[in-house]
Amino acid sequence: MSATVSPLAPKHFADMPAIRGVAMATAAAGIKYKNRTDVLLMAFDRPASVAGVFTRSKCPSAPVDFCRKNLPHGVARGVVVNSGNANAFTGVKGRAATELTAQSAAAALGCAEHEIYLASTGVIGEPLDATKFAGVLGEMASTAKGDFWLEAAKAIMTTDTYPKVATRSAEIGGITVTINGIAKGAGMIAPDMATMLSFVVTDADIAPAALQQLLSEGVGPSFNSVTVDSDTSTSDTLMLFATGAAADDGQVRVNAADDPRLATFRAALNDLLKDLALQVVRDGEGARKMVAVTVKGAESHAAAKRIGLSIANSPLVKTAVAGEDANWGRVVMAVGKSGEAADRDRLAIWFGDVRVAVHGERDPDYSEAAATAVMQQEDISITVDIGLGSGEATVWTCDLTKEYVAINGDYRS
Amino acid sequence: MSATVSPLAPKHFADMPAIRGVAMATAAAGIKYKNRTDVLLMAFDRPASVAGVFTRSKCPSAPVDFCRKNLPHGVARGVVVNSGNANAFTGVKGRAATELTAQSAAAALGCAEHEIYLASTGVIGEPLDATKFAGVLGEMASTAKGDFWLEAAKAIMTTDTYPKVATRSAEIGGITVTINGIAKGAGMIAPDMATMLSFVVTDADIAPAALQQLLSEGVGPSFNSVTVDSDTSTSDTLMLFATGAAADDGQVRVNAADDPRLATFRAALNDLLKDLALQVVRDGEGARKMVAVTVKGAESHAAAKRIGLSIANSPLVKTAVAGEDANWGRVVMAVGKSGEAADRDRLAIWFGDVRVAVHGERDPDYSEAAATAVMQQEDISITVDIGLGSGEATVWTCDLTKEYVAINGDYRS
Fold first, then answer.
1. Parallel, antiparallel, or unpaired for β B354-358 and B391-398?
2. Structural domain harbouring A322
């Protein structure tokens, strides 16, 4: 948590309604930070359908292992999240910490341990002392409340400069349902996935398998299309819970993700995921500018995405953006290094609406002043037309500033 | 070229002997820089055997295309290198510039255009005005001299803070031969290859095919094992020329790379290539520390190298090094994101000689003070034992500092 809020932060937070079927509480356990909350409990009145997507790291954290193990059961009664310590690369001690936490949470909520989900974020490699918060979960369960989303988002922050919340509504078979989400993340952000934790809850009544498919599809153009620094966390966790409370209004349970009744729900969910993902990029460590990189004309959508990420992860592109330098030659470099098919003499590049290069060379009408004016904006779009096919993708990143170096040069100490 | 020399620069330059059969001249053509040389001509008395390795970028520069086209002819009479403009992404104008330069050089040296090799380094995307130096190549050819290596290295610098030279000697069939090399490069340095130009010349008499095989094998553990910023240039060029002058001493021409008479030559060449490659890393933009990353116990050598590069390219690892922070958790992260097989619970990690992690958790004898003492050194080694196989590789990188951001935020302007 930083004293200075990112200049790219939203001007105001979404007004987060309560979601029937879920209550939350936070506590200040002093895991790493002083004078702030660092533990979140989410409690579901009844077993909620659950879906999850996790880091692809080969060295995942103990909580990620724990969640993966529970997911096949398909139902959740509680979620415990702590910030300040990732409980990653902590060996036997790490597993013991997840077990202690799960036992305490299950006792507090009167449920089975496989109905508990866990996430930890913070420093890697230091043993997590779960006794610091396991003892207070009972009290947290008894004081949890529904109108607590912003506080929940605050408790899971690490180097974040602002809490990330979003809400949407949709209709399923004529019944209005709500989707709320929180997220944290600022550095160690790369697909797949962004280094972040995100928890999304809806009162819709949707079966676990359908929920999982919705989430797996939704993560591609959202959290898996943002990068701050190309570094993939050991802890990335995105979970979606459906409390099913809308069944009380007559919403008929949906069992299949391709059910046409899910059309507006799917759109609302995807929009919310993108909203949260972009909030993570806008809080990129040291970020001063947000960059949307769109690649079109690639051989395939996947190729377009890889080229886009090659541009978005390039330190030389990102430092040029920081310096407000319309250095499109570095975009050419990043296209060339992506490994995807490209024909230099068909490439065209735009900064904002200003075409800077076409047919493999500088645009005949190139205006340095016009390009620089684009770079001076806070939100910048870079568009590349590869000229070979119809593959298209957009990814988002931020600039690479001296502040990123400063933040990460002494984060642990 | 920077006013401040990298603190990692060699304490003194190698004493470079002349190499029989090659002469050099430089000129100040004002391509981009003021008050310094920016054009180099290398002239071979007789057709020299030639080998080359070039960028794998899908958007190579016009000179790279030109060299690739000439290489099958196998012989060189001249090399023209300019700094300040990469002649990359310059379309038809770029090809015209290479043709003009080659014509002028061929006329100056009295040889065919396919005996000329070209390289350009600097800004991408701006048309190169080759008329600025094409006219002086005749005079350069007439004043070229053999004892000019350090000056040659200076003329090809861009953001380099010092010229890079190296020399070695070897024996072929009892005859002593010499190998000299120069290189430039500081940023946009990544395999494959490092963004750099390097020209190596020997007086040995070796046939082109053998020379090519020696060079292709030598580039792997040298220039293709260093990274400054993961960004691959459009212009990377490494060339090896053999003037054959040692034939005058009785050296019998070698036609095959596996000829046992090449044993000491191969070792000397590989050592020289590594020397030059490490000089490039030590001049990494903004670098204050040099890092050797060794990965052992991987499933294969190739897997070890990919894991090593994942660590060496991680902005979070590199900023931690800049901050003298023994943040080994980020090394775990980088191993995990590499995509290669890893078993968290078998990993061991050393900073220098200090083992910081073993069996998937912090070393029981971990000493923060000892680890920090390693990080305060100028030269740092990071060793990771994956614990799965016998694959091993070492790659080299530098730290990521605020100066890197500053240098690249306003390089072009």
1. unpaired
2. 290-409
Distance CA B386, CA A390 (A): 41
> Which of B289, B362, B386, B408 is the best residue to mutate to test the A interface, defined by the most A CB atoms within 10 Å of its own CB?
B408
Domain of A378, CATH number, reads: 3.10.20.340
Q: Provide the chain B residues 287-306 that lie in CB contact (below 8 A) with chain A.
A: none
CB-based contacts of A221: which residues, under 8 Å, 6+ apart? Answer: A270, A274, A394
pLDDT at A252: 97
Per-residue pLDDT tens over the stretch B206-257: 999 999 999 999 998 888 887 766 566 678 889 999 999 999 999 999 999 9
Q: Which positions in chain A touch B60 (Cβ < 8 Å)?
A: 336, 344
Which residue in A116, A136, A152, A118 sits closest to A25, CA to CA?
Answer: A152
The reply to whether A244 and A359 lie within a common domain is no
- Chain A, chain B: beta-carbon pairs less than 8 Å apart: 230
Say if residue A36 is in the same domain as residue A70. yes
Q: A394 an active-site residue?
A: no
- What are the pLDDT digits (tens) for A351-380? 999 999 998 888 999 998 999 999 999 999
- Do B333 and A59 touch, CB atoms closer than 8 A? yes
pLDDT of residue A185: 81
Do residues B272 and B195 both lie within one domain?
A: yes
Q: B16 in a domain, yes or no?
A: no
Closest approach of chain A CAs to the CA of B373, in angstroms?
A: 14
